[in-house]
Amino acid sequence: MPSLLSAVSQAFSMIVSLDSYLLSVVGVSLRVSGMALVISVPLSALVAALLGLARFPGRNLLRTLVNTGMGVPSVIVGLVVLLLLSRSGPFGGLGLLWTPTAMVISQCVLITPLITGVMLSALVGVDRAISEAAHALGASRLQRVLTVIREARFGFLTAVIAGFGRAISEVGSVLLVGGNIVFPHGVSYTRTLTTAIVVETRKGQFETALALGIVLIVIVLSLNLLASRLQRRGSW
Amino acid sequence: MKRVVVLVISLWSLLALGQVAWGGEELVISTTTSVYDTGLLDRLNAAFGERFGVMVKVIAVGTGAALRLAREGNVDLVLVHARAAEDEFLRGGWGINRRDVMYNDFVLVGPPDDPAGVGGLKSVAEAFRRIAESRARFLSRGDDSGTHKRELSLWEVAGVIPDAPWYMESGKGQGDNLVQASLMGAYTLTDRGTFISLQERLELLMLVEGPLNGGDPLLMNPYGVIAVNPAVYPNRNYIMAMAYIGFLTSPEGQHIIEEFRVNGERLFVPMALSREPRFEQYVPQDWRR
């Protein structure tokens, strides 16, 4: 069995030597998760604002659906996207299966409910008095909505980070719809950090697998540090 | 707020940069983890890609999944090792132009103390019977892979219906399954290639061998390559699939297979070049003229 220590030292040397396989795998991970985030965040913010601030019939049902969506296993999402994008499926003509785009799609489906849910709870948590005070000061309806969203911004940031965390650490769906493809000389096409860990584990290269895991944790950790700095500054 | 917007925009432009773009032709093949994990395909695909200016995308799954992906029109070509399933694929009209490519063999591996006493047996069916009689643990892939299909047919030959609690399924790929069998002290059936590449990390011994080392012919493990039928899926890259089949079965491709070594051991025996090619490689085995 490999020692954790040798994995750490291997992770370190892979990072320091800018291992080209590692860089390309990290690149795909960041691009796919980042793109999914860029699409999901505005969408989630809109849905959360509607569900949190507007009143309409069916609102509670929709909230329940969002909460359910937060718990759907990624393999199920991957399977559904696979069947939809399959050549013999309804969107087969687009030729999107086995591409990073397919991975972005499945990640969007996966993280949108999560981001929406966290944003929603942030909005609901804003003190009603703030909205009422804005109203008393003569704010329009839109201004009141913006005031509440501004109050909930820390919660929104938490939602974005949670969404990114789920996207980049996700294995099941990206393995299914991306196909885990790598080109000769270790150039990743649809292989992410997580699916690379699956391959290395299957090959019994436990040190390399652990090293990739450490790299993944370092990335998520540094993004979280950045976010908490933003939150503490509180000037925005 | 402005700072956040700037941050988002710069992240966005960062993401747009460095996108892997390949404007040229590509070939998508689905194959089994047992071939992919050895590294043989990397060697073959690099040579093929250079010669034909094509990017080869490999989807490594079990044989069952590989054929299913091809049936749905998601790949151009399959390289698999389960003749009965391949025949069904051919009969259904999804695949055409099958060729034998290479073979290796399955081996029965188990814990060093060999509680069922199967070490050195010449017959794998006898070994399976002894495992069942002694109710020693056996870990099956249970994933509809080529190895799993072969294991099931061997239980049938042995005349044993495997049963709980000694018979278990992992549902994992070949490498993962070996690791789990090693941790459980269980017997399992594996292809020789994956076992050799993992051997140092496993507490398992090769107990019954296949024909690669003069063992039981029931453990023969031939790999076949099949192109997806362009009449069913006109958008698939049939021309390039046929070029790939031609390359695999050419002297150059067969030489790469012949020379391929892992830990100094040879894993595959090329079988495409022959003065008198076996007719059975082209058609389902029960085909009648």
Topology (SSEs and partners):
The complex is a heterodimer of chains A (236) and B (289).
Chain A: H1 4-16, H2 20-53, H3 59-69, H4 74-85, H5 100-125, H6 128-136, H7 141-151, H8 153-168, H9 172-178, E1 182-183, E2 187-188, H10 193-202, H11 206-233
Antiparallel strand pairs in A: 1-2
Chain B: H1 2-16, E1 25-32, H2 33-36, H3 40-52, E2 54-61, H4 63-71, E3 77-80, H5 83-91, E4 95-110, H6 124-133, E5 138-140, H7 146-158, E6 167-169, H8 174-184, E7 188-191, H9 192-198, E8 205-208, E9 220-228, H10 238-248, H11 251-259, E10 261-262, E11 265-266, E12 269-270
Parallel strand pairs in B: 1-2, 1-3, 5-6
Antiparallel strand pairs in B: 3-9, 4-7, 4-8, 4-9, 4-12, 10-11
Helix pairs in contact in B: 6-7
List the chains of the largest interface with their residue counts.
A-B, 35 and 42 residues
Rounded average pLDDT of chain A:
89
Radius of gyration of chain A using CA atoms only: 21 Å
Low-pLDDT residue spans of chain B: none
Q: Supply the helix-strand structural class of chain A.
A: mainly alpha
Task: Give the oligomeric state.
Answer: heterodimer
What is the tally of helical segments of chain A? 11
Number of strands of chain B: 12
Biggest β-sheet of chain A: count, sense, barrel?
2 strands, antiparallel
Number of strands of chain A: 2
User: What proportion of the residues of chain A form beta strands (DSSP E)?
Assistant: under 5%
Largest sheet of chain B: 8 strands, mixed
Order of helices and strands of chain A: HHHHHHHHHEEHH
What percentage of residues of chain A falls in helices of 4 or more residues? Answer: over 70%
